[in-house]
UniProtKB/TrEMBL annotation, chain A:
Domain 4Fe-4S ferredoxin-type: 153-182
Record-linked Gene3D superfamilies: 3.30.70.20
Name assigned to this protein: 4Fe-4S dicluster domain-containing protein
Keywords: 4Fe-4S, Iron, Iron-sulfur, Metal-binding
PROSITE patterns in UniProt: 4FE4S_FER_1, 4FE4S_FER_2, TAT
Origin species: Thiovibrio frasassiensis
GO MF annotation terms: 4 iron, 4 sulfur cluster binding; metal ion binding
Phylogenetic lineage: Bacteria, Pseudomonadati, Thermodesulfobacteriota, Desulfobulbia, Desulfobulbales
Cross-referenced InterPro entries: 4Fe4S_Fe-S-bd (IPR017896), 4Fe4S_Fe_S_CS (IPR017900), DsrO-like (IPR054822), ET_IronSulfur_Cluster-Binding (IPR050954), TAT_signal (IPR006311)
UniProtKB/TrEMBL annotation, chain B:
Protein's name in the database: Sulfate reduction electron transfer complex DsrMKJOP subunit DsrJ
Keyword terms, alphabetized: Membrane, Transmembrane, Transmembrane helix
NCBIfam families: cytoc_DsrJ
Gene: dsrJ
Taxonomic superkingdom: Bacteria
Protein backbone atom coordinates (compact mmCIF):
# COMPACT_ATOMS: atom_id res chain seq x y z
CA UNK A 1 0.00 0.00 0.00
CA UNK A 2 2.83 2.29 0.99
CA UNK A 3 4.61 1.98 -2.34
CA UNK A 4 1.35 2.77 -4.15
CA UNK A 5 1.01 6.00 -2.20
CA UNK A 6 4.59 6.88 -3.09
CA UNK A 7 3.83 6.36 -6.78
CA UNK A 8 0.71 8.47 -6.51
CA UNK A 9 2.65 11.33 -4.97
CA UNK A 10 5.34 11.11 -7.65
CA UNK A 11 2.77 11.30 -10.43
CA UNK A 12 0.95 14.15 -8.70
CA UNK A 13 4.22 16.06 -8.32
CA UNK A 14 5.24 15.50 -11.93
CA UNK A 15 1.90 16.58 -13.28
CA UNK A 16 2.00 19.71 -11.11
CA UNK A 17 5.39 20.63 -12.59
CA UNK A 18 4.12 19.87 -16.08
CA UNK A 19 1.01 21.95 -15.38
CA UNK A 20 3.16 24.96 -14.54
CA UNK A 21 5.91 24.54 -17.09
CA UNK A 22 4.14 23.44 -20.26
CA UNK A 23 1.71 26.33 -20.70
CA UNK A 24 4.44 28.92 -20.09
CA UNK A 25 6.74 27.22 -22.55
CA UNK A 26 3.85 27.01 -24.95
CA UNK A 27 3.09 30.67 -24.43
CA UNK A 28 6.61 31.77 -25.14
CA UNK A 29 6.59 29.64 -28.26
CA UNK A 30 3.35 31.24 -29.33
CA UNK A 31 4.74 34.70 -28.65
CA UNK A 32 7.78 33.97 -30.76
CA UNK A 33 5.53 32.88 -33.56
CA UNK A 34 3.37 35.99 -33.16
CA UNK A 35 6.45 38.21 -33.40
CA UNK A 36 7.66 36.39 -36.45
CA UNK A 37 4.32 36.60 -38.20
CA UNK A 38 4.02 40.29 -37.30
CA UNK A 39 7.33 40.83 -39.04
CA UNK A 40 6.10 38.83 -41.99
CA UNK A 41 3.02 41.01 -42.26
CA UNK A 42 5.13 44.17 -42.18
CA UNK A 43 7.33 42.81 -44.93
CA UNK A 44 4.31 41.83 -46.96
CA UNK A 45 2.89 45.34 -46.43
CA UNK A 46 6.02 46.81 -47.93
CA UNK A 47 5.36 44.79 -51.06
CA UNK A 48 1.84 46.03 -51.30
CA UNK A 49 0.04 42.86 -50.21
CA UNK A 50 -1.40 44.35 -47.02
CA UNK A 51 -2.64 47.93 -46.96
CA UNK A 52 -0.47 49.88 -44.49
CA UNK A 53 -2.20 51.97 -41.86
CA UNK A 54 -1.26 55.19 -40.09
CA UNK A 55 0.85 58.03 -41.34
CA UNK A 56 4.24 57.56 -42.96
CA UNK A 57 5.98 60.72 -44.05
CA UNK A 58 8.09 60.36 -47.16
CA UNK A 59 9.75 62.34 -49.90
CA UNK A 60 10.27 62.18 -53.64
CA UNK A 61 13.51 63.74 -54.88
CA UNK A 62 13.56 64.71 -58.54
CA UNK A 63 17.24 64.70 -59.43
CA UNK A 64 16.74 66.21 -62.92
CA UNK A 65 15.27 69.35 -61.41
CA UNK A 66 18.41 69.84 -59.34
CA UNK A 67 20.56 69.59 -62.47
CA UNK A 68 18.30 72.10 -64.17
CA UNK A 69 18.60 74.55 -61.26
CA UNK A 70 22.27 74.86 -60.34
CA UNK A 71 22.72 75.89 -56.71
CA UNK A 72 19.29 74.62 -55.67
CA UNK A 73 20.68 71.59 -53.82
CA UNK A 74 23.13 73.81 -51.92
CA UNK A 75 20.27 76.16 -51.06
CA UNK A 76 18.32 73.25 -49.53
CA UNK A 77 21.36 72.26 -47.49
CA UNK A 78 22.06 75.74 -46.19
CA UNK A 79 18.39 76.36 -45.36
CA UNK A 80 18.13 73.15 -43.35
CA UNK A 81 21.41 73.72 -41.56
CA UNK A 82 20.48 77.30 -40.66
CA UNK A 83 17.06 76.29 -39.32
CA UNK A 84 18.48 73.50 -37.19
CA UNK A 85 21.61 75.19 -35.85
CA UNK A 86 23.88 72.69 -37.57
CA UNK A 87 27.50 73.74 -36.95
CA UNK A 88 30.05 74.13 -39.73
CA UNK A 89 33.43 73.03 -38.37
CA UNK A 90 35.11 73.92 -41.65
CA UNK A 91 36.67 70.53 -42.31
CA UNK A 92 35.45 67.22 -43.74
CA UNK A 93 36.66 65.15 -40.80
CA UNK A 94 34.41 66.84 -38.22
CA UNK A 95 31.60 67.65 -40.65
CA UNK A 96 28.01 67.57 -39.37
CA UNK A 97 25.43 67.02 -42.09
CA UNK A 98 21.67 66.62 -41.92
CA UNK A 99 21.30 66.85 -45.69
CA UNK A 100 24.09 66.93 -48.24
CA UNK A 101 24.97 66.72 -51.93
CA UNK A 102 26.86 63.72 -53.25
CA UNK A 103 27.63 62.00 -56.56
CA UNK A 104 25.45 59.33 -58.15
CA UNK A 105 28.07 56.64 -57.62
CA UNK A 106 28.26 57.37 -53.92
CA UNK A 107 24.52 57.62 -53.34
CA UNK A 108 23.67 54.54 -55.40
CA UNK A 109 26.76 52.34 -55.08
CA UNK A 110 24.97 49.08 -55.83
CA UNK A 111 23.48 50.27 -59.11
CA UNK A 112 23.93 47.32 -61.45
CA UNK A 113 24.09 49.47 -64.59
CA UNK A 114 27.32 51.01 -63.33
CA UNK A 115 29.28 50.77 -66.56
CA UNK A 116 26.41 51.41 -68.97
CA UNK A 117 24.75 54.52 -67.69
CA UNK A 118 24.41 58.03 -69.09
CA UNK A 119 27.55 60.07 -68.54
CA UNK A 120 25.47 62.98 -67.32
CA UNK A 121 24.78 61.07 -64.11
CA UNK A 122 28.36 61.57 -62.95
CA UNK A 123 27.98 65.30 -62.64
CA UNK A 124 24.43 65.29 -61.28
CA UNK A 125 24.14 66.74 -57.79
CA UNK A 126 22.21 64.19 -55.71
CA UNK A 127 20.62 65.58 -52.57
CA UNK A 128 20.48 63.04 -49.81
CA UNK A 129 19.45 62.89 -46.15
CA UNK A 130 18.24 60.41 -43.56
CA UNK A 131 15.88 57.95 -45.26
CA UNK A 132 13.61 57.64 -42.22
CA UNK A 133 13.68 53.93 -42.94
CA UNK A 134 10.62 51.83 -42.27
CA UNK A 135 12.96 49.16 -40.90
CA UNK A 136 15.70 51.31 -39.39
CA UNK A 137 18.89 49.48 -38.32
CA UNK A 138 20.03 52.57 -36.37
CA UNK A 139 17.09 52.19 -33.99
CA UNK A 140 17.90 48.56 -33.30
CA UNK A 141 21.55 49.41 -32.64
CA UNK A 142 20.93 52.19 -30.11
CA UNK A 143 21.43 50.83 -26.57
CA UNK A 144 19.58 53.69 -24.83
CA UNK A 145 16.61 54.17 -27.15
CA UNK A 146 17.86 57.67 -27.83
CA UNK A 147 16.85 57.06 -31.43
CA UNK A 148 13.43 55.61 -32.16
CA UNK A 149 10.67 55.49 -34.75
CA UNK A 150 7.60 57.62 -34.21
CA UNK A 151 4.03 56.74 -35.13
CA UNK A 152 4.23 58.85 -38.29
CA UNK A 153 7.28 57.05 -39.63
CA UNK A 154 9.94 59.55 -38.60
CA UNK A 155 13.17 58.18 -37.17
CA UNK A 156 13.71 60.68 -34.39
CA UNK A 157 16.32 61.32 -31.75
CA UNK A 158 16.22 62.40 -28.12
CA UNK A 159 19.61 64.04 -27.68
CA UNK A 160 19.21 63.96 -23.89
CA UNK A 161 19.59 60.20 -23.99
CA UNK A 162 22.41 59.92 -26.52
CA UNK A 163 25.55 58.58 -24.83
CA UNK A 164 27.68 59.05 -27.93
CA UNK A 165 28.52 55.37 -28.44
CA UNK A 166 28.00 55.82 -32.23
CA UNK A 167 26.51 52.33 -32.67
CA UNK A 168 23.78 53.97 -34.77
CA UNK A 169 26.38 55.48 -37.08
CA UNK A 170 27.90 52.07 -37.65
CA UNK A 171 24.45 50.60 -38.23
CA UNK A 172 23.19 53.18 -40.75
CA UNK A 173 24.02 52.02 -44.28
CA UNK A 174 23.69 55.57 -45.65
CA UNK A 175 26.07 57.63 -43.52
CA UNK A 176 23.12 59.78 -42.53
CA UNK A 177 24.39 60.41 -39.00
CA UNK A 178 27.15 62.71 -37.77
CA UNK A 179 28.99 62.85 -34.47
CA UNK A 180 29.86 66.05 -32.64
CA UNK A 181 33.58 65.60 -32.09
CA UNK A 182 33.80 69.26 -31.14
CA UNK A 183 31.61 71.66 -29.22
CA UNK A 184 29.08 73.04 -31.73
CA UNK A 185 28.81 76.20 -29.62
CA UNK A 186 32.53 76.82 -29.95
CA UNK A 187 34.52 79.16 -32.19
CA UNK A 188 37.18 78.50 -34.82
CA UNK A 189 40.76 79.80 -34.78
CA UNK A 190 39.60 83.16 -36.14
CA UNK A 191 36.99 83.58 -33.43
CA UNK A 192 34.12 82.78 -35.80
CA UNK A 193 31.35 80.71 -34.18
CA UNK A 194 30.72 77.28 -35.78
CA UNK A 195 27.01 78.11 -35.88
CA UNK A 196 26.98 81.28 -37.97
CA UNK A 197 23.57 82.59 -36.88
CA UNK A 198 21.69 80.75 -34.17
CA UNK A 199 18.01 80.08 -34.76
CA UNK A 200 16.56 81.03 -31.35
CA UNK A 201 13.57 78.70 -31.84
CA UNK A 202 15.63 75.50 -32.11
CA UNK A 203 18.22 74.04 -29.73
CA UNK A 204 21.82 73.26 -30.61
CA UNK A 205 23.48 69.98 -29.72
CA UNK A 206 26.43 69.42 -27.42
CA UNK A 207 29.80 67.76 -27.85
CA UNK A 208 29.64 63.96 -27.74
CA UNK A 209 26.21 63.35 -29.26
CA UNK A 210 25.15 62.06 -32.66
CA UNK A 211 22.75 64.10 -34.77
CA UNK A 212 20.82 63.77 -38.04
CA UNK A 213 17.83 65.02 -40.03
CA UNK A 214 14.58 64.98 -38.02
CA UNK A 215 12.30 65.36 -41.09
CA UNK A 216 11.47 68.76 -39.60
CA UNK A 217 9.13 67.26 -37.03
CA UNK A 218 9.08 70.63 -35.23
CA UNK A 219 7.74 72.26 -38.41
CA UNK A 220 5.29 69.47 -39.26
CA UNK A 221 3.83 69.89 -35.76
CA UNK A 222 2.76 73.44 -36.61
CA UNK A 223 1.52 72.63 -40.10
CA UNK A 224 4.60 73.64 -42.07
CA UNK A 225 6.44 71.51 -44.62
CA UNK A 226 10.12 70.61 -44.12
CA UNK A 227 12.52 73.51 -44.62
CA UNK A 228 14.36 71.88 -47.54
CA UNK A 229 11.08 71.15 -49.36
CA UNK A 230 10.04 74.76 -48.84
CA UNK A 231 13.40 75.95 -50.21
CA UNK A 232 12.82 73.87 -53.36
CA UNK A 233 9.11 74.64 -53.60
CA UNK A 234 9.34 76.70 -56.77
CA UNK A 235 10.88 73.94 -58.88
CA UNK A 236 9.02 71.13 -57.09
CA UNK A 237 12.30 69.25 -56.92
CA UNK A 238 11.30 67.86 -53.53
CA UNK A 239 7.81 66.58 -52.83
CA UNK A 240 6.84 65.68 -49.29
CA UNK A 241 3.77 63.86 -47.99
CA UNK A 242 2.11 60.83 -46.46
CA UNK A 243 3.14 57.65 -48.28
CA UNK A 244 0.23 55.74 -46.71
CA UNK A 245 -2.38 58.16 -48.02
CA UNK A 246 -3.22 57.07 -51.60
CA UNK A 247 -4.47 60.57 -52.41
CA UNK A 248 -1.31 62.41 -51.34
CA UNK A 249 0.92 64.04 -53.95
CA UNK A 250 3.82 61.69 -53.18
CA UNK A 251 1.63 58.60 -53.55
CA UNK A 252 0.28 59.90 -56.86
CA UNK A 253 3.80 60.57 -58.10
CA UNK A 254 5.01 57.14 -57.05
CA UNK A 255 2.07 55.60 -58.87
CA UNK A 256 2.91 57.26 -62.18
CA UNK A 257 6.70 57.69 -62.07
CA UNK A 258 9.48 55.14 -61.81
CA UNK A 259 11.67 55.83 -58.81
CA UNK A 260 14.64 54.19 -57.14
CA UNK A 261 15.66 53.98 -53.49
CA UNK A 262 19.10 53.94 -51.88
CA UNK A 263 20.56 50.46 -51.27
CA UNK A 264 17.30 48.52 -51.45
CA UNK A 265 19.32 45.37 -50.79
CA UNK A 266 19.90 46.57 -47.22
CA UNK A 267 16.23 45.86 -46.50
CA UNK A 268 15.70 49.14 -44.66
CA UNK A 269 12.71 50.28 -46.75
CA UNK A 270 13.63 53.98 -47.10
CA UNK A 271 10.94 56.66 -47.16
CA UNK A 272 12.92 58.58 -49.75
CA UNK A 273 12.36 57.96 -53.47
CA UNK A 274 14.53 59.27 -56.31
CA UNK A 275 13.45 60.17 -59.81
CA UNK A 276 16.63 59.96 -61.87
CA UNK B 1 28.38 59.77 36.34
CA UNK B 2 32.07 59.49 35.54
CA UNK B 3 33.50 62.45 33.62
CA UNK B 4 30.26 64.46 33.85
CA UNK B 5 32.16 67.71 33.95
CA UNK B 6 33.64 67.21 30.52
CA UNK B 7 30.98 65.23 28.66
CA UNK B 8 28.05 67.59 29.16
CA UNK B 9 29.83 70.79 28.00
CA UNK B 10 31.41 68.87 25.14
CA UNK B 11 27.98 67.62 24.04
CA UNK B 12 26.56 71.13 24.17
CA UNK B 13 29.50 72.44 22.17
CA UNK B 14 29.09 69.62 19.62
CA UNK B 15 25.39 70.34 19.15
CA UNK B 16 26.12 74.04 18.81
CA UNK B 17 28.72 73.44 16.11
CA UNK B 18 26.51 70.97 14.23
CA UNK B 19 23.54 73.29 14.14
CA UNK B 20 25.54 76.47 13.58
CA UNK B 21 24.51 76.77 9.90
CA UNK B 22 20.92 77.00 11.09
CA UNK B 23 21.67 79.83 13.54
CA UNK B 24 23.75 81.84 11.13
CA UNK B 25 22.25 81.17 7.69
CA UNK B 26 18.52 80.95 8.30
CA UNK B 27 18.53 84.25 10.09
CA UNK B 28 20.02 85.89 7.01
CA UNK B 29 16.90 86.39 4.89
CA UNK B 30 18.75 88.54 2.39
CA UNK B 31 20.60 85.43 1.14
CA UNK B 32 17.40 83.59 0.18
CA UNK B 33 16.94 83.21 -3.59
CA UNK B 34 14.55 85.73 -5.09
CA UNK B 35 13.68 84.58 -8.60
CA UNK B 36 12.21 87.45 -10.58
CA UNK B 37 8.59 86.81 -11.52
CA UNK B 38 7.36 87.76 -14.99
CA UNK B 39 5.62 91.13 -15.07
CA UNK B 40 2.99 90.45 -17.71
CA UNK B 41 1.82 87.05 -16.48
CA UNK B 42 0.39 85.98 -13.14
CA UNK B 43 -0.44 82.36 -13.84
CA UNK B 44 2.03 79.55 -14.44
CA UNK B 45 1.38 76.21 -16.14
CA UNK B 46 0.98 74.52 -12.73
CA UNK B 47 0.57 75.72 -9.11
CA UNK B 48 3.64 77.50 -7.72
CA UNK B 49 4.51 74.83 -5.18
CA UNK B 50 4.35 72.11 -7.83
CA UNK B 51 6.55 74.14 -10.17
CA UNK B 52 9.03 74.76 -7.36
CA UNK B 53 9.49 71.09 -6.57
CA UNK B 54 8.80 69.35 -9.88
CA UNK B 55 9.44 71.65 -12.86
CA UNK B 56 12.22 69.34 -14.02
CA UNK B 57 9.87 66.35 -13.97
CA UNK B 58 7.34 68.33 -15.99
CA UNK B 59 9.98 69.22 -18.60
CA UNK B 60 10.89 65.55 -19.00
CA UNK B 61 7.21 64.62 -19.34
CA UNK B 62 6.69 67.25 -22.04
CA UNK B 63 9.72 66.00 -23.92
CA UNK B 64 8.75 62.33 -23.85
CA UNK B 65 5.12 63.04 -24.66
CA UNK B 66 5.83 65.32 -27.62
CA UNK B 67 8.80 63.48 -29.06
CA UNK B 68 7.79 59.87 -28.53
CA UNK B 69 4.01 59.85 -28.24
CA UNK B 70 3.22 62.59 -30.73
CA UNK B 71 1.64 64.62 -27.92
CA UNK B 72 0.45 68.19 -28.39
CA UNK B 73 3.00 70.99 -28.33
CA UNK B 74 0.36 73.32 -26.93
CA UNK B 75 -0.85 73.15 -23.33
CA UNK B 76 -3.55 75.00 -21.40
CA UNK B 77 -3.29 76.54 -17.94
CA UNK B 78 -6.08 76.14 -15.37
CA UNK B 79 -7.52 79.47 -16.55
CA UNK B 80 -7.44 78.40 -20.17
CA UNK B 81 -4.40 80.35 -21.37
CA UNK B 82 -2.53 78.49 -24.08
CA UNK B 83 1.21 77.99 -23.86
CA UNK B 84 3.91 76.15 -25.78
CA UNK B 85 5.12 73.04 -23.96
CA UNK B 86 8.78 73.84 -24.48
CA UNK B 87 11.60 75.13 -22.30
CA UNK B 88 13.11 77.31 -24.98
CA UNK B 89 9.89 78.48 -26.70
CA UNK B 90 7.51 78.23 -23.74
CA UNK B 91 8.98 78.77 -20.27
CA UNK B 92 11.45 81.36 -21.48
CA UNK B 93 8.65 83.42 -23.09
CA UNK B 94 7.58 84.52 -19.61
CA UNK B 95 10.73 83.86 -17.61
CA UNK B 96 12.87 85.57 -20.21
CA UNK B 97 15.85 86.26 -17.98
CA UNK B 98 17.65 83.04 -17.11
CA UNK B 99 20.04 84.81 -14.72
CA UNK B 100 17.31 86.45 -12.72
CA UNK B 101 15.01 83.43 -12.69
CA UNK B 102 16.62 80.02 -13.16
CA UNK B 103 20.06 80.83 -11.81
CA UNK B 104 18.71 82.41 -8.62
CA UNK B 105 17.61 79.09 -7.10
CA UNK B 106 20.00 76.85 -8.98
CA UNK B 107 22.97 78.78 -7.62
CA UNK B 108 21.49 78.86 -4.12
CA UNK B 109 20.96 75.09 -4.07
CA UNK B 110 24.14 74.46 -6.04
CA UNK B 111 22.39 72.55 -8.83
CA UNK B 112 23.97 72.70 -12.24
CA UNK B 113 21.41 71.55 -14.80
CA UNK B 114 22.76 71.03 -18.32
CA UNK B 115 19.70 72.43 -20.12
CA UNK B 116 21.70 75.29 -21.56
CA UNK B 117 24.35 73.11 -23.17
CA UNK B 118 21.82 72.67 -25.98
CA UNK B 119 18.82 74.92 -25.38
CA UNK B 120 19.28 78.58 -26.17
CA UNK B 121 18.36 81.26 -23.68
CA UNK B 122 16.65 84.42 -24.89
CA UNK B 123 19.26 86.71 -26.43
CA UNK B 124 18.17 90.09 -24.98
CA UNK B 125 18.77 88.92 -21.45
CA UNK B 126 22.25 87.48 -21.93
S1 LIG C 1 18.89 56.44 -43.12
FE1 LIG C 1 20.25 55.72 -41.49
S2 LIG C 1 19.85 57.09 -39.78
FE2 LIG C 1 18.14 57.33 -41.20
S3 LIG C 1 16.59 55.86 -40.47
FE3 LIG C 1 17.78 54.80 -42.04
S4 LIG C 1 19.37 53.74 -40.89
FE4 LIG C 1 18.52 55.30 -39.50
S1 LIG D 1 13.57 67.27 -43.69
FE1 LIG D 1 14.18 68.96 -42.40
S2 LIG D 1 15.78 68.15 -41.16
FE2 LIG D 1 15.56 66.76 -42.85
S3 LIG D 1 16.98 67.44 -44.40
FE3 LIG D 1 15.08 68.45 -44.81
S4 LIG D 1 15.23 70.39 -43.75
FE4 LIG D 1 16.76 69.06 -42.91
Amino acid sequence: MDSKRRDFLKIAGLSAIAGIAVPSAFNSLLKGEALASEHGAAAAGAHGAVAPTGKRWGMVIDVKKFSANPGLAEKCVSTCHAVHNVPDFGNKKDEIKWVWVDSFNHVFPDDSSQYKKPEALDSMPILTLCNHCDNPPCVRACPTQATFKTKDGIVAMDYHRCIGCRFCMAACPYGARSFNWRDPRGKDANGQPFIKAENPKFPTRMRGVVEKCNFCTERLAIGQIPACVEAAAESKALVFGDLNDPASEVSQMLKTTFTIQRKPSAGTHPSLFYII
Amino acid sequence: MYGKGRIIPALILFLGVMTSPMWFKSADVSKMPKPEKPKDYTECVAPVQEMRTSHMVLLNQWRDDILREGGSRIGKTANGTEYVRSLQNGCMKCHSDKKKFCDECHNYTSVKPYCWDCHLQPKEAM
